[in-house]
Structure formats: structure tokens, C-alpha cells
């Protein structure tokens, strides 16, 4: 097969591992900077050009689209779908997962466990919003934030009001969530491929920090997850429509709660913590499922 990998940086660990795994299984790969792809949007012969040449003959595409280029990246991916190229994750599913509010509403509708979450627009509603999620301490999240950036723990009512007022004053969209004390600064990253959790790791925040992201200095270790956590992770990925996802779960007193469903989960931390060849499993999934025109939404989203 010929596999395109949409990635801004070919030297990133995840991109390199996917290239290695695909080549080891006898496939041809090409890493494409998604921002250098440009499209001819026409009724009968949609095409994508890259650095002056038309891209043809690809069987599958692996999107590794950063949050900052979601709009353009999913447009390029949608064009591949319109050309009949099989996407590892579809453009509609990535767009759905990248919108934190929309994804939580979809998960909520299907009964997935979530932290109590509030969303408001007017400063006059701040006091009731804080009360709604159980009061301080609470977590305030920028909707556009990634890798723990734009996430604030407000430990008192006054601090919560001040931070929320500041964000609202900047016209920033925020979520306000209950703080899960019992998680003790740890979460579980479940790596889902298809309908199966193929690996799981515990991410522990460093001392004095509540965000467990590895980019924020958190540490990763192997963990055994419960059947309920496994079911929650696979259901969350399915609801988002993602074939491959990193589902972040907290252990709360009322069962597992989903913090986020990541459509481009990194491979470095999970492969190091579990010793599993996740990249190889991703390529094996593509081999099993890739077929021309097999995209469920066919670029319609």
C-alpha cells in the first residue's frame, strides 16, 4: 500500500515510528506537511497538490494534525476522503473530538461518566456556575487549549471568580469543571485502536502540579485497568467516531470519568511505558480496513 502521513514535522517520534512500522510491513510512505497541501475542489475530479505536484495513488492516509491547524488540516483530510483514500481517522470525527464542548455533550448524551461541567457566557452567571459544579476547588479550561495549556486550578471561590471573569473579559470560551480530589493528580491514558484498548498507562503529575500531561513534566507508568474503564474508553472513542484515540480517564469515587478524547494521541509515552509496538498495530489496522471509498462520511461532514 501507499500511505500518506499528514504531519508538520517528519522528525517527531510518532511520525517516525509510523513510517518505520509501515515500511517494516512492506508499505510505501510519504510524510506530507499538511499546510503545504493545496486543493482543487471540483465536482468530478477533486485533487490535492503538494509542492507543485499532484498527489495520486494513495491507499490510506494517517492524519497527525496539530490542534493549531485543525481547520486547514481537516479540510485537506476531507479532500483525501473525497478522492476515495481511506483515512485512519475521519475528518468529521477529528473535528468532533477537537471541540471540547461538543465532545462532552456527545459523551453526556450517551451516558459516559464525566466530571460535572459548566459552560456560561455572561459574567452575571459566574456565582451560580461555580455553585453548579460543586464550588471551589474547581478546574477552568480554555476550549482551545491543548497539552494542559490554558488549564487552571482555582482553589478558592474568590480565585475562581477572578479567573473566570478574566477569561470572559478576553472573550475566551471556557469550561468550568469539578475537581476530582481522589484522582490525586493522576489520570489514565487508554490507547484505543478499533474497538479495543491496546495499551494503557498512568500519568502522574509532578510535585506541586495538578496537570498530569507528560508535556508538563508528568511521569508515565504501566497500569492495569478495570473492565469498566476499558468499556468506557472504547465507547468514548466509538461515540466520537475515531478508529484510533487516546482516551483520558480519571478514577473518581463514582467510577471512571472521561476528561478528553484525543484524536492524534502521541506514541512516545505509551510505547515507553508499556513496551508495546503501537505503531505496528496501527498499520495492521489500516491493512485490515483500508479500501477505496470506505470512508463512512465520504467527506460530507
From TrEMBL:
<feature type="binding site">
    <location>
        <position position="260"/>
    </location>
    <ligand>
        <name>Mg(2+) 1</name>
    </ligand>
</feature>
<keyword id="KW-0464">Manganese</keyword>
<dbReference type="InterPro" id="IPR013651">
    <property type="entry name" value="ATP-grasp_RimK-type"/>
</dbReference>
<keyword id="KW-0689">Ribosomal protein</keyword>
<keyword id="KW-0067">ATP-binding</keyword>
<feature type="binding site">
    <location>
        <position position="260"/>
    </location>
    <ligand>
        <name>Mn(2+) 1</name>
    </ligand>
</feature>
<keyword id="KW-0648">Protein biosynthesis</keyword>
<dbReference type="GO" id="GO:0016874">
    <property type="term" value="F:ligase activity"/>
</dbReference>
<keyword id="KW-0687">Ribonucleoprotein</keyword>
<feature type="binding site">
    <location>
        <position position="262"/>
    </location>
    <ligand>
        <name>Mg(2+) 2</name>
    </ligand>
</feature>
<dbReference type="InterPro" id="IPR041107">
    <property type="entry name" value="Rimk_N"/>
</dbReference>
<feature type="domain" description="ATP-grasp">
    <location>
        <begin position="104"/>
        <end position="287"/>
    </location>
</feature>
<keyword id="KW-0479">Metal-binding</keyword>
<dbReference type="InterPro" id="IPR011761">
    <property type="entry name" value="ATP-grasp"/>
</dbReference>
<dbReference type="InterPro" id="IPR004666">
    <property type="entry name" value="Rp_bS6_RimK/Lys_biosynth_LsyX"/>
</dbReference>
<keyword id="KW-0547">Nucleotide-binding</keyword>
<feature type="binding site">
    <location>
        <begin position="178"/>
        <end position="179"/>
    </location>
    <ligand>
        <name>ATP</name>
    </ligand>
</feature>
<feature type="binding site">
    <location>
        <begin position="211"/>
        <end position="213"/>
    </location>
    <ligand>
        <name>ATP</name>
    </ligand>
</feature>
<keyword id="KW-0436">Ligase</keyword>
<dbReference type="InterPro" id="IPR023533">
    <property type="entry name" value="RimK"/>
</dbReference>
<feature type="binding site">
    <location>
        <position position="141"/>
    </location>
    <ligand>
        <name>ATP</name>
    </ligand>
</feature>
<dbReference type="Pfam" id="PF18030">
    <property type="entry name" value="Rimk_N"/>
</dbReference>
<keyword id="KW-0460">Magnesium</keyword>
<comment type="similarity">
    <text>Belongs to the RimK family.</text>
</comment>
<feature type="binding site">
    <location>
        <position position="260"/>
    </location>
    <ligand>
        <name>Mn(2+) 2</name>
    </ligand>
</feature>
<dbReference type="Pfam" id="PF08443">
    <property type="entry name" value="RimK"/>
</dbReference>
<feature type="binding site">
    <location>
        <position position="248"/>
    </location>
    <ligand>
        <name>Mg(2+) 1</name>
    </ligand>
</feature>
<dbReference type="GO" id="GO:0005840">
    <property type="term" value="C:ribosome"/>
</dbReference>
<dbReference type="InterPro" id="IPR013815">
    <property type="entry name" value="ATP_grasp_subdomain_1"/>
</dbReference>
<feature type="binding site">
    <location>
        <position position="248"/>
    </location>
    <ligand>
        <name>Mn(2+) 1</name>
    </ligand>
</feature>
<feature type="binding site">
    <location>
        <position position="262"/>
    </location>
    <ligand>
        <name>Mn(2+) 2</name>
    </ligand>
</feature>
<feature type="binding site">
    <location>
        <position position="260"/>
    </location>
    <ligand>
        <name>Mg(2+) 2</name>
    </ligand>
</feature>
<feature type="binding site">
    <location>
        <position position="187"/>
    </location>
    <ligand>
        <name>ATP</name>
    </ligand>
</feature>
<protein>
    <recommendedName>
        <fullName>Probable alpha-L-glutamate ligase</fullName>
        <ecNumber>6.3.2.-</ecNumber>
    </recommendedName>
</protein>
